[in-house]
Fold each of these.
Amino acid sequence: MDARPGLTDVRQDQAFFGREEELRRVLNNLREGRHTLITGRFGIGKSTLMNEARLLLTGEKHRVEFHSRAPALGRDSVLTVTSPAPLGECLRELAGGLYRNGDLHLEAGGERADWGAVKKEFTRLGVRTMESEVLKGLAGGGKKYVLFIANLDRISLSSMRFFQSLVRITIVCGSAIETKDLEPFKGFWASFDRVQLERLPDGVARQLVSHLMSLSSLHAEDTAMCRNEILNSADGNPFHIKNLVYRAATQKSLGKQEIRAFREVEEGPYFNMGPLYMIGAGVLTAVKFFSAGTEKREHYIYYSAIGFILYLTFRVFRSFFVFRPQRRK
Ligand SMILES: Nc1ncnc2c1ncn2[C@@H]1O[C@H](COP(=O)(O)OP(=O)(O)OP(=O)(O)O)[C@@H](O)[C@H]1O
Ligand SMILES: [Mg+2]
């Protein structure tokens, strides 16, 4: 769906609502040097909370209620990482930050070269050496680095050793939808204080919807009903709230019918694999049937029955075939 010309895309809006309690905990933790893991469902606001904490910690943003007597962290002691995987990419991101801070010291003295050249040289070192150069850089500057790492649940088993070293020499604030329960991960997650994000409280969700609706100058036949439908459908998830307001704003006329249709969006992030499995089962049955020939009637009955049972199985256990793809930014 295309936006109307001149329409504000509310999805890009940066305002931050609620979450005071959680923010306070994250800030206290990081100021006191405790690793923190922000967990919660997809789109619930983990990255946003992490970003808000980073801005307040470095003094790039001020909010009286979160003021601390401790001096703000220098921006040169904070690094952000988009994802821990693939590891090579993650190491390059860290190295880039260290390079900007003058904390990356490669053998060839490439420090004065531009980042493009240094990056090439760095990549040539191979993963093991890249790991140790990054760890050296993080530990060597005489300051304690705070790392903000999104999607920490994407850590792979093979890169665990590196991340275990990382939490020994830096303070890590990460976000994750869920944490893996396997043995090597357990110890790692145990070093984090968890801040679990739940749905936005009704009052806050209502504030956010009103704010976004006024930004997008939304005109619905019945504004109150539109707001309520959005609130019901989104169930306190800010990602859904933003998308719903955006969708509402892109519709020229917004009648009660369209507003009611918002409820469907709840299934948005899921992709139902059921039909695919069902078609697969159908094709398999057909192939079996034709390979057996049509002259044997018992085969005909037998394969039809199997096909029907497979179909029933997929209908009944539909929820097991729902696949959730990774959301892209
Ligand atoms: N407290 C908040 N106030 C206002 N908007 C918010 C808030 N929290 C999140 N949002 C908005 O909701 C959207 C989703 O937030 P965010 O990307 O932080 O979620 P997430 O939990 O990191 O998602 P994912 O699981 O995909 O990583 C963003 O557009 C963000 O601006
Ligand atoms: Mg995120």
Amino acid sequence: MAPTDVELVELIQILRSRDAHSEIHRAVTRSLENHLVEAFKELQTKGAISKETKDVIISELNKITLHRIAEESGVYLNKLRDKRDYYPEDIIRLRRDHEILEHLINAVTVAANNTEFLAKLSAIIEIFKIHSAYEEKVLYR
Ligand SMILES: [Fe+2]
Ligand SMILES: [Fe+2]
């Protein structure tokens, strides 16, 4: 899902501020963790995760995709390159994380069953947490 120009400009603006960027990371993580618990409870009590719940989670995951697109649009990479203690490995590592996250987000949307859906969602949350902490460290140090 491609972001609109307005969305992209807003997201790029957020990347300029450590606090705003960090808050986005925390909000997305918190929301996905809550959805994961709810989806798991739904599976336990009703025997399946509803399409409605899955759609809400997938729209939440789209926020990670939009965030990634904004980060890779230039400002983010320029910010890293402008740093005195810039390491090219940092960009490679962060981009690799983005690729893995995108792979898992696509896998969630086509998950064959509820177990696979929850497993992939859990993996995304953990990787996003590790990625966000590393990104904040290298981007604003
Ligand atoms: Fe990122
Ligand atoms: Fe980020």
